[in-house]
Amino acid sequence: MRRVTIEGFAEIPPVDRDLDHDEVEGVRITTAGALEQAGLGRDDVDFVCSGSCDYVMGRPFSFAMAVDGIGAWPPKAESHVEMDGAWALYEAWVALQCGDIDVALVYAFGRSSLCDVGEVERMVLDPYTLAPLGIDSLSLAALQARSLMEAGASERDFANVVARNLRAAGEAVDVQTLLAAPLVRDPLRAHDGARRTDSTAAIVLRADGVGPAITGIAHAVDAHHPGMRDLTRAPSAAAACAAAGGTRGVEIAELHTPYAHQDLILRRALDLSEAVQINPTGGSFVADTPMVTGLARIGAAARAVREGAGKALAHVTAGPLLQQNLVCVLEAS
Amino acid sequence: MDRSRFVAPFVLQYSYKRSLGPVLSQFATALRDGRILGAVGSEGRVLVPPVEADPATGASVGRLVEVGPAGTVMSWTWVEEPGDTDPLDRPFGWAAIQLDGASTQLLHAVDVARDALKVGLRVQPRWSDERSGTILDIACFEAVGATVVIHPSEGEPVTCFEAPTRIGYTVFAGAVTADFLEALCEGRLVGRRCPGCQKVYVPPRGSCPTCALAMEEPVEVAQVGTVTAFSVVRIPFEGQRLEPPYACAHVLLDGADVPLLHIVGGCEVDDVEVGMRVEAVWADPIEPTLASIHFFRPVA
Lengths: 333, 300
What we know:
The complex is a heterodimer.
Chain A lengths: L3 E12 L7 H16 L8 E5 L2 H4 L4 H5 L10 E5 L3 H14 L4 E8 L6 H6 L14 H14 L4 H14 L6 H6 L2 E3 L2 E2 L8 E10 L5 E9 L13 H9 L8 E3 L6 H9 L7 E2 L4 H4 L6 H14 L4 E8 L5 E8 L2
Parallel strand pairs in A: 2-3, 2-4, 9-10, 9-11
Antiparallel strand pairs in A: 1-7, 1-8, 4-7, 5-6, 8-12, 11-12
Chain B lengths: L6 E13 L1 H12 L3 E5 L5 E2 L16 E4 L3 E9 L12 E8 L6 E5 L11 E6 L10 E6 L16 E13 L2 H10 L4 E5 L6 E2 L15 E5 L2 E10 L12 E8 L6 E5 L12 E6 L10 E6 L2
Antiparallel strand pairs in B: 1-10, 2-3, 2-4, 5-6, 5-8, 6-7, 8-9, 11-12, 11-13, 14-15, 14-17, 15-16, 17-18
């Protein structure tokens, strides 16, 4: 295995609605920022890979337009995944493993403010037997949450996760107040869903650089139809974690949890002990930008290592109810 | 400047005809006929709704068998205020339902009182009056014991179905395009210059697509330019603004370095030629859209 390091990470700070930057702007600013942090220029980049979704952006080939943000000259080998940028990073990591290239630039952009993201999420459901029902993503999440409660969890457990994330983000919140909020989709309340945002993020990968090293990265997938799975478990998260080397020694974990109760499922799947600090600043739960949050989790984990953590883990999910999961483990070089 | 002025609704809407394949075709045909089928997967598991391969093993499924129609609620939630896409127009539940004989759960709507909905509730399908071979042939599930009505419905095997899609967006112009539209509303064409290659783009971009540098310097360009390329549109299509034939053209405005895609009018289409000098003909009143230039006509 070639040692691949994260040399730079930049993001447009997530906001509810960003009217200042279009996607090209965001890509230009973040890719330039990540390269500057890496001490590299555009000339040094061998490969560019991006993650985004046309349905999120509301226009076809939005990813092709966004390429303007990296500049047409000098020309680059370029690729794209219609997924969270974390999978674009995975593709870049594979390309670096192949040995033909030394520097890769990865970026992701997305918005929650252009449409009801739930409508886009509905489009990833089985188009034959599930999507035609019109079920919304919060209702699906509620079915998963109730399955967890049947297995012993409580609404208070969910509220504790919400409170922990919000407090980490610097907000004063108490569990009693959370539990007093109305049920929007029994047993879930509005605050049980992650806060949706607009943002852009970019990461620079390098073979044998000096930044945090990717010591393991893997992804796995479970059955597509939620009714085919035990929704209280995330076997693909466990499989990805094992393939990425496991969690022994991990000090900080950035978990991608579109819903609070999924924190409980992931802790178990990833075998995270109480000693592991989860989402030190609230993480994806306070800023969930479609197609960006995962890449930003890897960036946040790299930042944690840069700031002194010995080992950090980033988790990213896609698909309905934790269907697909990616785990990336980072250690100091 | 008020940026929200350049925010607009946009609807993405289309329909796919989805073919069903051998397994789902049997499932859909059975729904049309008022029955529910599951596929026998690995180790005898019965998968409902059926899939072509067992997700646990990847092995192709075997024959399809009839399941239910009654089943048990394994998980549920409640929708107090149904929306446009919901299958019922009054408060209802969503449930994961394990049909009798099935190893997996079907998700569907349940029409019972809220306090009756619980894990373990026995439910049965309420069939739609008209069935065409989709999951909506089951209107919803209801408590076991209600009178079962299955209107007869038959025909050829169902092999495909119509899957409409609709997403509503609120799009915004972005700061750079908003500046352009603001000037456009005053009857001016204002582009931006790249600090690297010095090229002037009209309409402007925030970022030079060649150099990836921020383009901040505004440059007003002329409303007169030169046709650098054109194509005559002779066939009609949906959403067409003009009656064919007409000429689409690249117009390089004096002072700009990148041509603007627009329409040449005010002359016979056969008279349009590369190198022709043209000028903008404005609409009145001007709206914040490039269509406020009706077309470019030959300079007299």
